[in-house]
Design goal:
The complex is a heterodimer of chains A (about 475) and B (about 325). By secondary structure, chain A is an all-alpha fold. In chain A, about 65% of the residues lie in helices and about 0% in strands. Chain A has helices spanning about 5-20, 25-40, 50-70, 75-95, 95-110, 130-145, 155-160, 175, 190-220, 230-260, 280-285, 285-300, 310-325, 330-350, 370-390, 395-405, 415-435, 450-470. In chain A, helix 9 (about 190-220) runs antiparallel to helix 10 (about 230-260). Chain B is of the alpha/beta class and about 325 residues long. Chain B has a 5-stranded parallel sheet with strand order 2-1-3-8-9, sandwiched between helices. The chains are: A mainly alpha (about 475), B alpha/beta (about 325). The interface between A and B is medium-sized, with 29 and 25 residues.
Chain lengths: ~475, ~325
């Protein structure tokens, strides 16, 4: 079930009303969350119920076993490792089997050996990368003694399957989300209103900006050999906004929906295109994933404390693994490596934590230097997005080459500009002035918006924009990961 | 919680009421919001005329029904649209399959083949010439045989943004009010009638023709024959052959347009001949008959010329049919 579908429009209010009606009994609430989450998930494909249930059960059991073997570190390590391996095997089978098989065949062919390998024709279960990592974080946190193992199976299953963030994140940490299911949730008016605003903003980003950009991006990337440089640059810029609005829009809807149920999820995007360098960009983009890799891969490998060269190795490792997490294609791996290459000089110079504040804080406009930094960072990120979006490395290289080799301007229909450009400008305007908030419509503290009629006007304008200008519905990009 | 639901209700009441009014209006509006809508408001058909706006305006089904009714399973329906709505492609073919009464085995299918219908005009296609028109057209509408229920919602939903705005405007204004020069309506047989009030040889018409040809020249400069659309045309012919007789035709048009087409698509006619031979379907080209028929804008036939052309086409089909019997 998509967030921007008619089914969800009916699903959400019904779930909301029933949820708060049974609020007295939080365990029943948790059971209810599990049921509706499985219904939500099953709307995609009911065949994958068992998979998520199995993952949940394995991780739940691993937590209990780790606790039972308190003091026996080796056994605890074994249990933790077993759970990690089982879950990663499942992930690899569904996501990476064919990739490895195909590449093995190619590798052996280089040596003149023909392998007779079968490839499996399986659907990728929606959200498997997200809930698997969420389950793994629980096991690792219990092993690391950051968290006590839970004996409340309902809370645990609710934690894994909680429907707003089940299929595309944010990838929640057990230390943050799981305790929220141990106690009665209290309805908070301000939080619920803020949640609705965040949902509205997420829908605007997804349906107006992302879906309209997608139409143009698909056409440009399909015909990149014949289009002019300006069109190709426009295509990459539009894709940058497509992927940002698609993914952050989904996250906003997820976080906003969770607020309606009294659950706080972590922020997943923090206005990344206003970053002044690549390190800041990665602190602001897909925060739940990048922090997951930092905490569960980078730091266990030694982080930057293992020495300069090991620090570099670890940095390259997490970027490449992060790229690979996105999909079974060399483009994602190269994209990860490319970002690692951009990051390493900052790490070498010790400037990777230079910009931890909000750009132009307290000011209306950025300085000239900041504008330059933002644009430069955006251009560097853009090159990465071309690699990310391309079907293969060859196409990515061709695309970039054609920007410079094709005529600058070729005739072509530029009608996509009529919607995409105003929508993107509106997005930038709103998010710039809200860059120190959690989302674009966090307007409680904005003075001139204290009047109800102004706030209502904003809501109505956004709703009208969505109804009139929504592009042809596209699947959320990150569902494929 | 009470305060939340109350305030939410207050916020949503106006859009909700507005949406209900709009939906009610759309539901009750009698349709015919543009020159394509009417074709979706008829039942499945036994025989079809396919092509672009040249065929939509230039071929009169009633004349075909009268002259060829004894030979084929008629009546025939004009299911032609326009260059941007019905170039040959998967979308148009899917729509044709939905429109056709698949029980028929002796239908008549007149397929107008123009360079425009198998060219990629905009430079937004893929490497094989499949362009954005595939998904952005009212042809994607699911129900094309809605004699008995309203398709307004589907029609709005299937239209791209610009069409949507135009549709909403037209619904409000009633498009088929006569303007100074033209009145436009669709007949029950699917033919689009554009009655021009201006005289054939008037200065306004001559200027319109020049302007239109200049515009077409600009389009053609960036166009190329699409492999994708060529293959879809072949797929369309192959499919329709299972249900009856397929006739390929090339509509008459103005001398200037013919020259433009020959200039930019010199191999087009040869290609159609190849398709005709390969699929064993006759091909009648009326391209060089520009002296016999008049166009109102350099491309589309006047109503009377269209009637005359249809009659001549029927005669050609009759001669072809009698040749086959011999």
């Amino acid at each position: 079930m998509l967030f921007n579908s008619i089914e969800f429009l009916f699903f959400l209010p019904i779930v909301f009303i029933v949820y708060w009606t049974i609020n007295k009994y939080y365990k029943i609430q948790n059971l209810f969350i599990i049921v509706v989450s499985y219904v939500f998930y099953g709307w995609w494909d009911w065949r994958f119920f068992l998979l998520i249930a199995f993952t949940s059960f394995c991780s739940y059991l691993s937590g209990i076993l780790i606790e039972n073997f308190e003091g026996q570190r080796k056994k605890q390590k074994l249990i933790s490792a077993a759970n990690i391996i089982i879950n990663l095997i499942i992930l690899c089978i569904f996501k990476y089997f064919n990739f490895f098989a195909d590449n093995l065949i190619i590798l052996f062919e280089v040596f003149g050996i023909t392998l007779d390998f079968f490839t499996i024709n399986v659907l990728l279960p929606v959200g498997i990368s997200f809930y698997t990592f969420q389950a793994l974080s629980y096991t690792i946190d219990v092993y690391s003694k950051k968290l006590k193992a839970t004996h409340d199976i309902l809370s645990f299953f609710a934690y894994i399957s909680f429907f707003p963030q089940l299929v595309a994140g944010p990838i929640e940490r057990a230390v943050n989300l799981l305790p929220q299911f141990y106690k009665k949730r209290i309805f908070k008016y301000d939080s619920a209103v803020d949640g609705l605003r965040q949902i509205l903003w997420g829908l605007f980003k997804k349906m107006v900006v992302a879906d309209n950009c997608a139409i143009a991006v698909n056409a440009i990337f399909s015909n990149y050999t014949e289009l002019g440089g300006i069109n190709l640059i426009a295509g990459s810029v539009l894709f940058a906004f497509q992927i940002y609005c698609d993914f952050s829009g989904y996250s906003d809807i997820a976080i906003g929906t969770a607020k309606l149920f009294g659950i706080q999820l972590m922020q997943n995007f923090n206005f990344p295109y206003f970053s002044r360098d690549i390190a800041e960009f990665w602190r602001r983009w897909h925060i739940s994933l990048s922090t997951w890799f930092r905490d569960y891969v980078y730091i266990p490998l030694g982080g930057s404390r293992a020495g300069k060269w090991k620090g570099f190795r670890n940095t390259i490792a997490i970027f490449v693994i992060s790229g690979f997490w996105h999909g079974a294609n060399w483009t994602f791996i190269i994209w990860g490596a490319y970002n690692a290459l951009l990051f390493l000089p900052l790490l070498l110079l010790g400037k990777n934590r230079k910009y931890t504040d909000t750009v132009a804080e307290g000011k209306i406009l950025p300085s000239v230097k900041e504008i330059f930094q933002i644009i430069l960072t955006f251009v560097l990120v853009l090159i990465g997005w071309i690699i990310f979006r391309a079907e293969n490395i060859g196409q990515a290289v061709d695309y970039i080459y054609n920007i410079f080799s094709n005529p600058l301007i070729t005739p072509g229909l530029y009608s996509y500009l009529w919607i995409c450009v105003p929508a993107i400008l509106l997005l930038i305007f709103v998010e710039w002035f809200q860059r120190n908030k959690k989302h674009g419509l966090e307007i409680d503290s904005v003075k001139f918006l204290k009047y109800r009629f102004i706030r209502f006007a904003i809501y109505y304008i956004l709703i009208l924009c969505i109804l009139l200008f929504m592009g042809k519905s596209q699947v959320f990009i990150y569902f494929q990961f | 919680m009470k305060r939340f639901i109350t305030n939410l209700a207050i916020v949503l009441i106006f859009p909700f009421v507005g949406l209900c009014c709009f939906l009610l209006f759309v539901q009750l509006y009698p349709g015919y919001v543009d020159s394509y809508y009417g074709r979706f408001c008829s039942p499945k058909q036994n025989s079809l005329i396919l092509g672009t706006s040249l065929a939509a305006q230039g071929i009169e089904p009633d004349i075909i029904n009268e002259k060829l009714g004894h030979l084929y399973h008629l009546p025939i329906f004009n299911y032609s649209f326009s260059i941007d709505k019905s170039p040959y492609g998967e979308t148009y073919l899917e729509s044709i399959k939905k429109k056709l009464n698949t029980d028929v085995t002796n239908g008549l299918f007149i397929i107008d083949v123009e360079p425009d219908a198998i060219a990629t005009i905009e430079n937004m296609g893929d490497l094989h010439g499949k362009d954005t028109r595939e998904n952005q057209t009212c042809i994607t509408i699911k129900n094309v045989n809605s004699k008995y229920f309203n398709i307004n919602f589907q029609y709005l939903k299937s239209s791209v943004f610009f069409d949507r705005i135009v549709l909403i405007k037209r619904i409000s204004k009633n498009i088929f009010a006569d303007d100074e020069l033209h009145s436009i309506y669709i007949k029950d047989n699917g033919r689009l009638i554009v009655d021009s009030n201006s005289k054939i040889d008037s200065l306004q018409v001559k200027e319109d023709n020049i302007q239109r040809n200049n515009m077409i020249n600009e389009w053609y400069k960036d166009s190329y024959l699409s492999k994708y659309r060529d293959s879809c045309l072949c797929a369309t012919i192959e499919y329709l052959k299972q249900h009856g007789t397929v006739i390929l035709i090339s509509m008459p048009t103005s001398k200037e347009l013919v020259e433009l087409q020959q200039n930019y698509f010199p191999d087009f006619d040869k290609r159609i001949q190849e398709i005709s031979t390969k699929y064993k379907v006759p091909y009648f080209s009326f391209k060089n008959s520009f002296d016999k028929y008049q166009t109102r804008d350099g491309s589309h036939l006047y109503k009377d010329s269209g009637d005359q052309f249809t009659s001549d086409l029927c005669d050609s089909i009759l001669i072809y049919t009698s040749t086959l019997k011999i």
